[in-house]
Structures are given as structure tokens and as C-alpha cells.
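Hi R.,

Here's the chain you asked about this morning:
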Amino acid sequence: MKRNVGGLDRLFRLAVGFASAAFSFATEDTALRLLLGLVAVLGIGTSLLGYCPVNHLFGMNTAANKRK
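And the predicted structure, written out as C-alpha cells:
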């Protein structure tokens, strides 16, 4: 997997992931809890891996390309 998620994008995804996780624990609605949990897992996961399949699908790349 080639990285396609850059620095600010990763930070934003991490923040949204942790916020979603916190809200999922605060709510009592099961459907909303599952949705927020899914958003949390996807946000934190793509941030830590630096790879997003949706970015790849649409040909987007926010990672800095280092040239030699």
C-alpha cells in the first residue's frame, strides 16, 4: 500500500476519529452509537495507516511526494 493520506489530512482524520469515539460512548441510541463507532474506526485507522481506499478509488493523494 502506497501512502495517499498526508499530514494535515491525517491529523484531521485522527481528531474526527477520537471525537466520534467519545460521542459514541456518550449516546444511548444504538444505531447512532454504531455509526459513530464506524466513523471512529475508519478515521483512526486511515490516519494511522496513512492509506485510504476511497482516496485510491478516486485517484486522490494528499501525501507529500518526495522527489530525488
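DSSP finds three helices and no strands in the chain.

Let me know if you need anything else.
M.
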